[in-house]
Structures
1.
Amino acid sequence: MASENPHPAAELPPTLLDLSTYLLSRIGRAARVRLAERLAERGLRLWDMAVLAALADFGPQAQRDLVRRLAIDPSDLAKVADRLAAAGYVERARDQADRRRVSVSVTDAGRALLADLEAQARAVQDAVLAPLDAGERQVLQELLLRVHHGTGEWCGGL
Amino acid sequence: MASENPHPAAELPPTLLDLSTYLLSRIGRAARVRLAERLAERGLRLWDMAVLAALADFGPQAQRDLVRRLAIDPSDLAKVADRLAAAGYVERARDQADRRRVSVSVTDAGRALLADLEAQARAVQDAVLAPLDAGERQVLQELLLRVHHGTGEWCGGL
DNA sequence: CGAGTTGATGGGTCACAACCCACTATAGGG
DNA sequence: CCCTATAGTGGGTTGTGACCCATCAACTCG
């Protein structure tokens, strides 16, 4: 039998396409998966990038602070920090004022890596948002930011 | 030590917030998780809703067609159809023209359920998109739809 | 100086999505 | 009438994200 369609077309139900949240979920997941693939090529995960970004943006800080900021499980963060440190992207040092705390800071290698990862993320974004022109992307970004701020009580990882 | 902030604030790194894809991913995931919770209260999963929606929108069809349309694994669909049939939301009948195929159709109960689920999805959407007025939601929906159509080659589940 | 608290860590569990393979039944072409 | 392809099904594996608990070390307060 002749295949009705070269690629399956995946014509999704209007009932779902009508939900912004459905589109949000699908598109967001696609973007996340795509970026995750690129990170995986470098032996990294999404959390690694998030931690690097937090350190680059907010400076050296204790894991404790990263835990609060990123809403990540302390135990999981310990593992991420471990791998990043082993790879030379961050340095860990006991806080002399409070020797329980481990202060984490990005190295130059880490900063360089982050720049690369950002470029990857931008590339994925360009691919995903291809149908939109610069102005539309701006509008989208602004709307998403408003949505994000308006509901900061979401907790939730990533 | 006084807690600097009642709720942890989760002040995320600008490096990430600047990425629309990051926001897309976070917001989309939050919406999906929230809806999934509501479905779970009814003993259902997201795929159940997707299958019901596809059947309601496109009418009775063989599992084979659902597989192509929704890009779901045949084996997984079999399990979903099984549960939906057991709960009385769909009916399965051998296609008389091709007895390999199993034609699936929604029952009245299934249609009623879907209406309920849609209401749940709308409720979640209202909560998530709370910061936006009707006009802005319209704009967002349109942008997301364009993004979605522009990149139909994503495959990928949900 | 205890007693309770906090930060970090290691070692798990649990749920779930995606995927894959083997097997049966049916269809259809040579 | 075989042979191959297709539809559905059952029984898995794998990877991952979130979470949880026990433990150790270090701080703080009484």
Note: Confidence is low (pLDDT under 50) at residues 1-8 of chain B.
2.
Amino acid sequence: MEMTPRKEKILAAVVESFIRTGEPVGSKTLMGELDFRVSSATIRNEMADLVEMGYLEQPHTSAGRVPSTLGYRYYIDKLMNKLEVNKNESESIEKSVASGRGDPEQLLEKAGEVIARLTNCAAITTLPTGEQACVRRAEFVPVSNRTAMVVLLTSAGTLKSKACRGDMPITQQTVERFYAVCAAHFIGKPLEEIGTVMLQTLVASLGEYALEMSPYFVALADLASEALKSDVLLEGQSNLFNHRELSGSVVDIMELLRKGEPLTKLIASGDKDGLNVKIGTENEYKQLSNSSVIISRYDVNGSRSGALGIIGPTRLNYAKLIPYMQFISGVVGKILSETLED
Amino acid sequence: MEMTPRKEKILAAVVESFIRTGEPVGSKTLMGELDFRVSSATIRNEMADLVEMGYLEQPHTSAGRVPSTLGYRYYIDKLMNKLEVNKNESESIEKSVASGRGDPEQLLEKAGEVIARLTNCAAITTLPTGEQACVRRAEFVPVSNRTAMVVLLTSAGTLKSKACRGDMPITQQTVERFYAVCAAHFIGKPLEEIGTVMLQTLVASLGEYALEMSPYFVALADLASEALKSDVLLEGQSNLFNHRELSGSVVDIMELLRKGEPLTKLIASGDKDGLNVKIGTENEYKQLSNSSVIISRYDVNGSRSGALGIIGPTRLNYAKLIPYMQFISGVVGKILSETLED
DNA sequence: GTTAGCACTCAAAGCTAACGAGTGCTAAAC
DNA sequence: GTTTAGCACTCGTTAGCTTTGAGTGCTAAC
């Protein structure tokens, strides 16, 4: 069976009606929503075909139709008319987001808040990562006799620190040795190259100072690998409770989001033209099989980038939210470009 | 009507049975749980008295009794036998917590995890704060032509940083002026003294460099006030969903916990001997009127301290959990003392 | 190919009856 | 005076039943 223009119109109407109301859509309801006049019986025939083709589903025999994952996919890829963000909204969004200008973390937190409020979904955002960030600076700050803060600053502007307790008292020499080794082995080095292998050769080369110094360099390497991971922020988690269709899975979703790793994976997932929409079972994680994820990348002067995303029910207003997300990621990219480069 | 030993025994039995089962406790059930033999009718009479005295409540006429806030309070203060933490548990707890040794944040995250798992509640923990922390070090790291990372390290070992965009290009002079002003006005100064007043006089004294330099000092002052707030960590929020009696209020509680301020307030609430238990309506926040909060302070060499807490239903196993919390805060205090002082 | 008509399906809502855990009260026993 | 057995009563819970109505698939006529 092949797709016809009329079937497309009916499919689009079902999707849009279901997105609006959340109720399965019946043939009579649909009559009033189509721009051509046919009887409900005709619509029923067409809908039966669409079910057979896999675009619609029936919760039970005597209920209306609901879009399947495939149906949503077809709608988004071929049928949907994107709603442009109107002037008023775009200005107010831009103003809200811009209030976080200055500090990237604050900016993305703000952006997350705006997205969460606007979409009534959970928002995930990543801080910008530089592709080939390297170590810019390392600091060693004793805080007690045996404990020091080790601080790492990358060329991408990421700062990480950690308290670290050594096995021997810290002396002036400890500090000097730290900076000397850093200058030789860490400063200017790409973060990717700082791994266990590099660390082992380094420790070996420390000779008699290995015992004294190695804890700090281990910590430094930890910081480097932390800095490589793009930090992910989460906002508006509790919005998920507002969607009845998620009621069973909210806890599972939250549990999934709590762990950093899946989040990172989610938001990094391959995208074309900076946009990525995953519907229901298209998602890698089964906890999200009733959810949709919209991810939009932002670019900072071409060199660095991150992403903004939302997680919500499959019944998202894609036509409205996709342009929103693209607009907001544009704003974030623009502001970050201003902040970070000159 | 006054309390009698028999009434106390009955009250304790009701509380314990209710904590165990979550079901209202009837007179017949209670017969089997008392260490003396009386008929159910007698127990009914006593329970009626306890209701009148405000220690018990009746969900409805034909249901058993449930402890009131007052009942729990009486039980905890006068009747409860604390269960000591047994050797096996204490060792395994200590081992788990100690795995976060080294970095305070990591330690308290770990402690929070352990608590959450052990108690099936949400765990809140604060990082240790020094009473009179002062500025130990400030750093200025340009990341682009007009943006710099401003970094603040306190004597308590807290490190805060922020990207900050100035109005003029950053030059070598900018950096030198920054460090000069810091040395004169920030280093060694108690965090409390860095407020808007101090900032205004400082900016005024900058003269012709005010425009160029002030953004960075504003950022530095921001960092100082951030460093003053004790950081609060939250673990195991989703455990709250495991308690049926909280079902209605979990979202409200989570919304409350999301904001930092209430958390800080909660965990800072006045305590005697380091322990603080708030039952149901004793809590300041109405979102917690069905919940209990147990807070236990930890001390680090007397000089700094923080707290560990749990939030759960009022039906907590106080006799077990209070000693747990005290034990864990002891462990945390000990480990932190080792890490931070010498 | 389209439509009116009709019998059929099935979840949801409402209704009633039975159940049973638990109570308060009374009067007798201790 | 306290304790207890006995009993009528309360009330939330559960199960089973019917009703309702939105929606369907099929058929036969247009």
Note: Chain B has a mean pLDDT of 91.
